[in-house]
Amino acid sequence: MMVSDGFGPASQTYGRSYWQFATNRTFNTQTSLDQILIGASRTRSSDSLVTDSAAGATAFSCALKTYNAAIGVDPEGTPCGTVLESAKAQGMLTGLVVTSRITHATPASFSAHVVHRDMESDIALHQMGDYALGRQVDLMFGGGRCFFLPNTTEGSCRTDNRDLLAESVDPKYGWNKAILTRNELNETHLDAGVQLPALGLFHLDHMNFNLDRMNDKKIAAEEPSLNMMVDIALKTLKKAGFKNRSGFFLMIEGSRIGTVVDVVYMAAHNNDPAAHVHEILQYHEVVQTVRNFVRDNPDTVMISTSDHETGGFTLGLQPDPHTYPDYMWRPEAIARSKRSTEVLMHELLSFTGTEKERRTFVKRVILEEGLGVTDATEEEIAFIVSPESPPVEVLQHLGHVLSKRANLGWTTQGHTGVDVNLYAEGSQADRLRGNHENTDIGDFMVSFLDLNLEAITAKLNANLGWFKKTRDGFAAAVSKRDSSQHEKTGR
Amino acid sequence: MMVSDGFGPASQTYGRSYWQFATNRTFNTQTSLDQILIGASRTRSSDSLVTDSAAGATAFSCALKTYNAAIGVDPEGTPCGTVLESAKAQGMLTGLVVTSRITHATPASFSAHVVHRDMESDIALHQMGDYALGRQVDLMFGGGRCFFLPNTTEGSCRTDNRDLLAESVDPKYGWNKAILTRNELNETHLDAGVQLPALGLFHLDHMNFNLDRMNDKKIAAEEPSLNMMVDIALKTLKKAGFKNRSGFFLMIEGSRIGTVVDVVYMAAHNNDPAAHVHEILQYHEVVQTVRNFVRDNPDTVMISTSDHETGGFTLGLQPDPHTYPDYMWRPEAIARSKRSTEVLMHELLSFTGTEKERRTFVKRVILEEGLGVTDATEEEIAFIVSPESPPVEVLQHLGHVLSKRANLGWTTQGHTGVDVNLYAEGSQADRLRGNHENTDIGDFMVSFLDLNLEAITAKLNANLGWFKKTRDGFAAAVSKRDSSQHEKTGR
């Protein structure tokens, strides 16, 4: 099960077109995804036309519609059994490979049960195995180490002082010692795989954008690409699954396609077209890796879809109605960009020079070297330089400065409601043809793997002692949601 | 062959969601289109990632990529045989049913050959039968009467004084007397069909938006719905085709889904969400009519796709990042709108009262009664009232005032490059599954109907005397395109 987070139809056209430009391919060359398009997924949640990633992933994992922010719980906030847990109960191996924090909404919805996505300290506990079912995951690769460190440690995000890196190797959970860098996960693992259960946490927060990994050797030494992680995961799970005669379930997420940046910037999405396109290209590579695996293993199936669109993204907009019917987009503007706006923003926030030096820094380092923009207007520069501009708006502004030069457009920092593309290949993939509710994808996995979500749900709910803390959190979360709802309908 | 002009993926989600709201259906109810989704079409033209409707339709009709603005000609401006012409050569009956001017880009690309879409006086001649192949079309329903009237007549758009309504009944062309109103095309025709060759021109310009037809009895008396026109066309062509043992080819276009308004407002697109949704709902009805026909006639196939997306349209945007992860859209705002912004703009332009009266008129007639907006801000009102606001911007502004209240977004007045949905049902429809170039749809029709486009192309090019005027126009058109290109890359 592959999830391309925040990846709408226009982003696929954009990714293909940029790839054709950057690799000198003809306009009619298909990407790895195009070759396996079979339909579309309708993405709404139980309480909104526009879903968030939590409800979107729970639709896949529990095959039910739930409220935005719900992680593996139904609309009443009660735990629902997931395909990962049920696969484990059938004796299969299970894995999660992502580029966000491993505790983020999508992987969490397969491996944890909390009433609000922000309860990531609890999510990490469940993922480690400290909840009703014990350890359910055999392989976890991604970011989010900060939720595994005690809050007495610098860089920790936990609300308590538990040290999950230490606890996880306890026989109760049985994890092997966590892998923390790309250098530890080296080429030998590409053939041999890793020891299960395997925990790889390659960043405190989300892993870096692929654009930054490509252009910064330090990042490349610390963080593997999604494609490398997936390659190792597939080999490991196949080998071990073959030995156990068990098979496996693996969830892969291209987590940062929608360019979410939520610890630092309060859940804004960057609207960063260069970071966006390089996440897409990396995802295309991963799709090819998984497709190769599926072809070599005829009893497997792969599905790729998105939880929702992000940004109201469009490409090739018309800058001026008088040029009709001529339209254009400028991939070369994107190709000049060498760093994500996220990284550039960090650099800007830590800059300490005088105002004059700051201006030079913005022009040279941020705009010219970073974004590849050499023709910024006075107005565009001034907004970035001004200490009064709110960081979240400067971040957006940087994305828009670049987007404008490529004739790309965005309508929102958030998600939108458009149906997303559905791709699949392998055994029984034809059954997913056409236009579906996102929950149909969950139903397909249940049927394909012969799972029993009801049995897992019953087991989770038999004794809800483990869920008390989470349930208590629910009232607070609901009250927060209601007051926010109230504000919005009050206008 | 059904073309939903300017209808992108987000518009289908929008149409479905509004329909579910307006008719009290559950969220998982599919529309007539959803049930037959089979893939996507890549829409680029030979000279742009973003196509216009002319190159978009020529990709279907001639099965080749050509430049934006090209009508039934290849990238060198040479005529290319169309599926309609080739079907005629095979002895089939042919038809065009649209809601734009019949001389507009999409129907023109099946039935005419000119180097620029603006040459609509020539297009009407070709459609009547005054070109190399003689009359090729057996049934034409739509708007665009102004290009059939001599320029000595009020309301004419022709560049010459030819009276095509009179000429068309000449035995040389053989058309029956043109049908000009909905009342002439009455219920008896729903069973009996009409006499072929049939010419129905129900408006001087584009036919009105369905929203306005629904809310204005005068329009409803003058103009049939697209669904009624299609119903009559199918019955007529089936009956006559059965008699001739010939079969038929019919091109249907929901021409105004992208809400283009190009005579009055210089090719802007309205970004009018209410007119947009009612064009979509009407199109859904037409799809059901055609699907019923295809099911009753197992040797037929129907295809529905778009030429391109319009507006960079998105739904359910996030008005404020702080409300994350709650999103909403407000269909009730759309339901309150009773008139298209096009009609409201006409009313505003013909208003002659004092400035104070104008202000009252804008608030009451335009905003409250027309758009259903009762909470317009001072700024929103002032821009509409000001005589200094350019009409094309006021038109857009009206659409945005309404869109904002529904949480809908647009990035452009023009088209965008996203792949569009591909729908099909009937004989051999499975061959169109997956992601395709738009020209593949032309190739499919050629193969399905066993056509020979090369033979028609050869016939068209055997003696290009008829094409001289058009060829002369080409140099001017190219020079216009080049200078516009120059301006744009000059920044």
Tags for this model:
Alkaline Phosphatase, subunit A; homodimer; 491 residues; magnesium (chains A, B); 2 domains; globular; disordered C terminus
Structure, described:
The structure is a homodimer of 491-residue chains. The first copy, chain A, has helices at 9-22, 53-61, 83-89, 105-111, 120-128, 164-167, 188-192, 210-215, 217-222, 226-244, 273-296, 331-335, 341-349, 355-371, 378-385, 391-406, 438-449, 453-462, 468-489; strands at 2-4, 37-42, 93-101, 139-143, 198-201, 248-254, 260-261, 268-269, 301-305, 309-310, 314-315, 408-409, 415-416, 420-426, 434-437. With 491 residues, the first copy, chain A, is an alpha/beta fold. Chain A folds into two domains: 2-313 and 413-479, Alkaline Phosphatase, subunit A; 330-406, no CATH class. In chain A, the strands form four sheets. In chain A, strands 5-4-3-6-1-9-14-2-15 form a nine-stranded mixed beta sheet, sandwiched between helices. Chain A has a two-stranded antiparallel ribbon with strand order 7-8. In chain A, strands 10-13 form a two-stranded antiparallel sheet. In chain A, strand 7 (260-261) and strand 8 (268-269) form a beta hairpin. In chain A, helix 13 packs antiparallel against helix 14 (355-371). At the A-B interface, helix 1, strand 2, strand 11, strand 13 and strand 15 of A face helix 1, strand 2, strand 11, strand 13 and strand 15 of B. Chains A, B: One of its GO terms (cellular component) is fungal-type vacuole membrane. Chains A, B: Zn(2+) binds at residues 5, 262, 269, 307-308, 415. Chains A, B: It comes from Actinomortierella ambigua.
